[in-house]
Amino acid sequence: MGLTSYRRSRSASLDLSEARAIISQKADRVTKRMCGIAGLITQDPNERIGAMLRAIEHRGRDDEGVWTSPIINDEGRRVAFGHRRLSIIDTSSAGHQPMVSDNGHLVVILNGEIYNYRELRDQLTSQGRTFRTQTDTEVLLAAWAEWGEDCLPRLNGMFAFALWDEKERQLFLVRDRVGIKPLYYSDTGTDAGEPDAGCVRSVVFASEVKSILASGLIKAGLDRESLHQFLTFLWVPDPNTLFRGIKTVPPGHFVKWRDNEMTTHEWWDISFAEIEEGKSDAWWQEQVLETLDRVTKLEMVADVPLGSFLSGGIDSSSIVAMMQRHSNGRRIGTYTIGIEAEDLRYDIIPDDVQWARRVNQQLDTDYHEIMLQPDVAELLPKLVYHMDEPAIDMAIPSYLVSRAARESMTVMLSGMGGDEVFAGYPRQMAMKIAGAFDPVPQLLRRPVMNALAHALPGGMPGKLTAPLRNAKKFARSAALDFEDRYLGYGTYFTDEGKARLYTEEMRSANRGLDAYSAHRRYFARVKHAEPLNQLLYVDLKTFLPCLNLMTTDKTSMAANLEVRVPFLNQEMLALTARMPTRLKLRGLKRKYILKRAAEKLLPREVVWRKKAGFGAPIRSWLRGPLQPMVDDLLSEETVRRRGLFRPEEVRRVIAANLSGREDYNLQVFQLLTLELWQRAFIDGVKSQLPSAKGAKCRSLGHRPRYKFNQVSER
Predict the structure, then answer these.
(1) Which of 62, 191, 196, 465 is the most exposed place for a label (fewest CB within 10 A)?
(2) Considering only CA atoms, which of 325, 519, 250, 540 is closest in space to residue 418?
(3) What distance in Å separates the CA atoms of residue 215 and residue 163, rounded to the nearest whole number?
């Protein structure tokens, strides 16, 4: 592969036509990888944009491009956009980014896909717009030129993009409706940010945090409020991140920079205000099938090999069945991941393989089965590096099945999102069961439920592992009011648990923080909606983008794979938003109308099988291959030196988990990956980035003991 060549500006006063030429390309037609974007507004941005792109090189090697503006203000700042590309639509060099409008007023970099770009192209052509390529990026550029911000509701896709308006001197950072694609940013001049000593005020953004850090414009520091949230949920609600001074663009929002001011604007929200009553179940079944068929076909648009994950559950199986209708006789490539029987001894997740095989027999796919046998102690630090945050257990199988699929596929469809739009999670059913006890006075309910929760063991091996764990978690929260009950079902370290865990300094620093504040704001938004829709709304704004979609994006990126999610297409979101809740959860039957519709596609035993979560056998691994790592990274000496937690409480949690008295497996795994994250990012891998002119931006710390480099390819 040849080295990237950047063509620098000849003077500070070059015009826009010359600025458009400051684009570098690197074509590598051997390996196709995902897309990533990066950019900044600062002095001498070319000193930094190259390092930012190298940090996200794994997201795309088909093409690399850089665009740099003329000086935009009296401080001598310029705008630089950078892009790494995996060619999916129009794989020729015509899709090169950054892309500049014909008049030079607009520049855009796009990560993701606009599925309805052909329809939009026809509309824009009828209004006099002309096109040079077959790319969705050029359609996006023309749509913004025609309609401005009002183009956003017209876009059907998964995307994160940055757009510079040279005429108005303003930057837009835009994220899709539900957060399928990530986008991070930092304004180093705000109180929240912590710029390196001597660095001028700057704005920096990227698809991944590691790219922002590679700019050298902001130090990696731990945000304590976000840590408080992370310990509660296993993840951090948008727009916070564990990095102090680095935020996400929230789903359905855009961030605008102009005249040194950054403002956040919401451009999309889901509404449950127009529920369609009076229609039969049969009518709704047809609507579900027609919509799923249409969005699956729409998301199959690609000029490269395309397949699907297959768990044997209703969501992925329905997607595969619909894909068959539009495959022109080609067998759909499907990939599933299984777990060894020994690893399931302590775990609560059933093995999907038998069901995936059953679906394959029915649909006759090009079936691939992978057994989960990683060197988890070696893989885990590398996944933490790729995710920019502590890894959840599902990250491991998600990466491994993505890596296996990438050997023959470039794009995969996934059933993710079905639980969020059709109410498929056990906690939603648990809310309904617990609601039946609401007439019982709390003075009676709480002592009974607390006694039950205390009496039940949480982590004993055997067939009762899952029922006992779920019963214990149910009892802990069932006596609370509506909001707190639901939040309790998603809580890992309670407020009392965090108080025991924290050092005195941390308890003092976090006094008064409400980890649930973001969730409560979302509950307040939909307080007039039906109770089930309130739960779905909160999950759509928090759990879905901040955990599930983020994990899927980062792990598939690490495997050089694009993953699409038809259940989260805007057409499906609109359909389920106006659907009566009795069709989502009927009695104790979750995803009722989807299952009734899917009976026309799949065997009945597959449709009505017990739900299986997607995760890894963490309980077995913590007692096996990960135990030496736990003993090392969560040792008394290590915990005390870190200064966040009380070593004796960490050891108590580990011991209670190993004994089976409590199911603290995810909490132990959480503390383990938190320490890995701090070693990778906070302690710091020495940066190779040169300092900007006149700045004193130093690298951080020492190189950590564990290997945090990118996962290797097969």
Answers:
(1) 191
(2) 540
(3) 19
**Placement of tokens 């709704």 in the chain:** 284
pLDDT reported for residue 704: 43
Q: Which helix (H) or strand (E) holds 576?
A: helix 570-577
Q: Which domains does the chain have, with CATH numbers?
A: 16-266 (3.60.20.10), 270-617 (3.40.50.620)
Instruction: Please state, in angstroms and rounded to a whole number, the distance separating the CA atoms of residues 545 and 270.
Output: 14
- Best CA proximity match to 153, nearest among 131, 120, 181: 120
What's the pLDDT at 293? 98
Residue 343: phi and psi, rounded to 5, are -70, -15
Token digits for 314? 């209703």
- Residue 86, phi then psi, degrees to nearest 5: -105, 120
Query: What are residue 322's phi and psi, to 5 degrees?
Result: -70, -35
Question: What is the C-alpha to C-alpha distance for residues 647 and 644, in angstroms, rounded to an integer?
Answer: 9
Q: What is the pLDDT of residue 157?
A: 96
Whole-number percent of the chain with pLDDT over 90: 69
* Block residue for tokens 């520049």: 107
Structure tokens at 400: 């491994």
Euclidean distance between CA atoms 609 and 653, whole angstroms: 34
Nearest to 542 by CA among 501, 597, 487: 487
Q: CA 585, CA 581: separation in Å to the nearest integer?
A: 6
- Within a 10 A sphere around the Cβ of 102, how many other Cβ atoms? 13
